[in-house]
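README: folding subset

This subset contains proteins for which both the sequence and a predicted structure token string are available. Records are stored as plain text. Below is the entry for Manganese transport regulator (219 residues), shown exactly as it appears on disk.
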Amino acid sequence: MTPSKEDYLKTIVSLGGATKVVNNKQLVAAMNVSAASVTDMNTKLLKEGLITHTPYRGVQVTEKGLRLANQVIRKHRIWEVFLLEKLGYDWKEVHADADRLEHASSDLLIERLNQFLGEPEFDPHGGRIPAKDGTTESYDYPQLNDLSAGDSFVVKEVEDDPDFLDYITVKGIKLEQKYTLLAKEAYEGSLALQNADGKTFMLSYKAAFKVFVEKADTE
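--- output ---
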């Protein structure tokens, strides 16, 4: 399979295409390509049985397409762990190089790398690493915006976007750390948060959609 096809499948899955239809506009925006390019690639993937197409709505990956996409995602996330843990990359820096390395890596190399790293379960942003056969455990953490004032939570996953990661790093958001949602502003929707040390800070409404959490007991 070509790197371009792998990227399309991976993007469809990242947009929710394993469980719902993804339209062409979403793919154009996510991949920064033309509508004609998306239509052309959809035709190719459809012929190979990797996606289904619903007229006037969009596409969704088949079981075969999901398995192949998850195998690419596995390579990507294992490389991200390696770059962070062994080469000293920051979590905002790993994505671009992992994107390039995933397409040039044999299955043997990835399995050796996985063993070398101690078979990690998650990437640096909290994303679960799929199994070798392309399967993955189902989990669905709520977005931070779904919580109510007074809720305590642990950050489990964040969106892999460099500018966003810069923003939450400055704010002090870290994986597996506990916070409390103190309040939501009525107009702009910004969130007032408190960390375990009692420090309070504001997080934007937009950023809260990119933070995935697990509710925790309030002490």
